[in-house]
Design brief:
The structure holds two protein chains of two kinds. By secondary structure, chain A is an alpha/beta fold. Chain A has twelve helices and ten strands. Helix content of chain A is 32%, strand content 9%. Chain B is of the alpha+beta class. Helices cover 46% and strands 7% of the residues of chain B. Chain B is built from 26 helices and twelve strands. In chain B, helix 10 runs antiparallel to helix 11 and helix 24 runs antiparallel to helix 25. Classes of the chains: A alpha/beta, B alpha+beta.
Amino acid sequence: MSRIIRRRGILRGLGAAALLAPLVQLFGARRSRGATAALPKVVFFYTPCGLQVDLWHPEPASGAGVVLKQLSAPLEPFKAQCTFMDGVAMYPLSDHQGGSRQVLAGDNQDRKTIDVLLGEHLQGTAPFGSIQLGVQSRISEGGQNTVLHPNISRISDAEWIFGEDNPIAAFDRIFGNFSAPSDDGSAALLAARQKSILDSASAGLLSLQNQVPPSEKRKLESYTESIRALERQLAGSGLEQSASCNPTDFNPTGFSVPAVTDPNQAAYNAAQNKEIVGDLQMEIARLSLACGRSRVVTLAYEHTNAKHPIAGLGAFGVHDSSHFTAPPGKNEGDATPEQMDAKLTAWNNYRVWYAQKLAKFLQMLADTPDVEGSLLDNTIVVHCSELGIGHRTERVPFVFCGGGALGFKLGQAFDFRGGVPAFSGGAHDGVRMLAHSSLLTAVANQLGMPLPQPIFGYAGPQALDPRSLGILV
Amino acid sequence: MGKQMARCYPSAALGLLLLLTSSCTGIVDGPPSGSSGPGGVGTPGVGSPGPGGVTDLDAAANCQEAPSPRLLRQLTREEYRKTVADLLALTEPDVSAVPPDATVRGFTNNVTVAFVTPAHMDAFLRAGGQLAKRAVQESYAGLVGCVTEDAACAADFVNRLGQRAFRRPLTNEEQSRYVQFFDPGLTGGDFKTGVALAIQALLVAPQFLLRSELGADAGDGRFQLTPYELATSLSYTLWGTLPDNALFASAASGALANRTELEAQARRLLADPRGRERVSSFFYEWLEVPKMFVASKDEATFPALAADRGGVRPLQDAMKAEHDAFVTHVVFDSTRGFEELFTADYSFVNDRLALLYGLPAPGSPEQVVQVPLGAGSPRGGLLTMGALLFGHARTTSSSPTQRGHLIREALLCSDIPPPPPDVDPNVPPGAAGKTARQQITNLTGTGVCAGCHQLMDPIGFGLEGFDAIGQFRTTDNGEPVDATGEIVAIATPGAFDGPRELSQVLAASREAKACFVTNYYRFARGYDAKDVDVCALQQLQRDFVVGQLSIPDLFVSLVLKDSFSSRRSAEVLSP
């Protein structure tokens, strides 16, 4: 994917949308949408490697009484629209990898993560269920093909969803059309070709159905579901017409991704492009919600083993800097006091930078009118990380922002430490912190998603009824 | 991170640790009682193997080979790349949009974790479109064998390309399905557009992306691979791509059903450059060589890496080239035996790698060339290569645990339970001891951690003469290196001194030889051996360990097994 998004291409896509109306009927009935009510939306905003918890979590308070700390200070303009939660732990695992595994799954079990489930629940007429975007979320020391950290979004343990790190490809996929072998035809012709190609794949699947043993059915089901997802995208090529949906303004600086043989060397993976890639991905997330492409977006800034430094903030990546007791560039060994100080400074710089990005994203949503109110009013933004204090999945920096119209009670700071029975055994023995599964459950409940169990994920004594927490209206 | 995590002390997470300890202790004491199947048919005194580990070689004579599971095998990204290159006669096709493969034990082709997710489907569709466009521009005349550009020409094209894409003749229904892409309603009357659309459609078809090992019903619940399925399994096992014309012809004529023909085809494929490349891919995945490309190293500690900045990795590239050249030399050009993999007195280096290894520069800046290592060299064989040492080490220091773990699991097929989740994988600051060996011994040599670590660390100690990037050293942090160690929980446990003796132990080990067979079985079949595979695996292990088969003969033996071509319906496989 190397082409620069051109206005002409976008316009062609939009033209296709208009011409596609009859085709839409081919893909089954579209659920009708409420005439005026804004649809609920959710964004999971992930930032890596935990933080210095006491420099982030505000003391319990509400309204103007909430006093943000050094690392959370960039969120000051949104203090009244966010609820900060200390004393939240993710059970039962407690390390980088375990945290990544658990953060959207509720625990360490093999299940579909909540962003995917919510995507299915909220999809309605949107062409995409959930959208997963990343900012250098796969690159590991130059090797994105060897995934050393669990993907936070999954269909199952065997079916991972790789966040799209290339904003140009992501935009192309979400707002453009499929790449057709010949693009000189009209939009309707292109759509007809794409439909024919997907139809032929479906026919191929159908002919296999009766040949495979039960043990292989899941492979065909997965394949079929994937084709259906593309068909929905094709059917949903029509962008919602509103002033807020303005994809033609995307990528004003013309960021491009020249072709390279090794994706590790791609422009979107370059350390110096982290800022612009992040900005573009946030814009894609905003546009996806504004244009009705999806109601659920997961945006991951980097990952648990993130390597690349951010210019001006530190000489080493966030993962290295989080190992602040080791010398620069190392995860082990004794740092001198000066070295430790430098690493902590860098780590805190990164944390402030991530908070700035979150604040920027919240502002983008706040500035985008929805059917009623703003996107921020109708979107619950869940900030999360795979770790909290130290190397542990405790005091994880969960923050709910926005979603005022969805029944979330905002402008508060909680500390849930001590409010639950102690966890017994394992990595969290003796820990008395609220299970983050309660928070994921709160999101599911408020967005009307039925759950097979009262709690999504870990359901031990540390998981409380979300209605008892004070985070909901 | 702040160092508040558990160490290997009895106070931390006691219940889980005791469980782990007892499971590793079980290995030390012998196989767990009552176990069965390939994961538990242990020779007395032999360590309890992982799934598909060392099996009972004596039982091979009396066992009955069973059909293996009916499968659909999704093309890996590498298989996809090679297949579209061959199918469409394209050089270096761009498949970077295709998501990476999930791996099991390093292998990218495990059927239990391969699914066409929405991201895959999107990528296959996009990549297919681009590849189709390229094919029309670059390979049109070769792909379309007619110039009339009429219906007959379209049908001929679809038949010929479709047969190679699906690796069998198309059914009438399929032929009609793909000929429809020449409908003027879709092409606007442009024949080349029809060609491109048909190609794109073929490239997203399940019959292309999922190669069939379903077989045809042979009664009694058994299925037999069709000649085309057999040819396909053969070519993907030995080449990683689709059959060539000669193999297709053998399938079409029915000749491939003949065992002599099957063996001749297997030997032909193996001897082909594609066969050599496939063999190096097997070793590459089995020995976790890709870790080398993602390992974090400290340039301040290792100035030799300074020139590797900017994402260019000439050192690792040279190590991979050494690895590839070495394994293919042993397997095809030298003794073709297992022992030489560990005992060779030569290797393949370029000037850059020679400098790292302390060898005279061979005068070859890029290509690796064969060089003698010289008497008394600490190097020789796979274990002492940068390709293994670099990726199995820490940022600044060696890791006896990582290296021992690789040898215990990948080379001896004994599984080690994962560490408790809150164990800090890093040696903490201020850990007692100066050398890596002293530090890890002080941390894990006693107490609850020792149960598992004794199975790994003392093996890894044998490679302590190599630092985190594979350079030879005699001191570690100012202290003399101690490279003595021992291997316990194998049939002939014993002590060794240094990497060459460690290599000798493995070269002579029945477990290591049997484990090599097990891993090739995993690679060839796309899953960990299950109960139904026990007999086939036992027989192959017996022939390789006792019967002294060469490595190429082992590879051929595997594809000649009845279980390679016969199938049965089976339960859902798990990783």
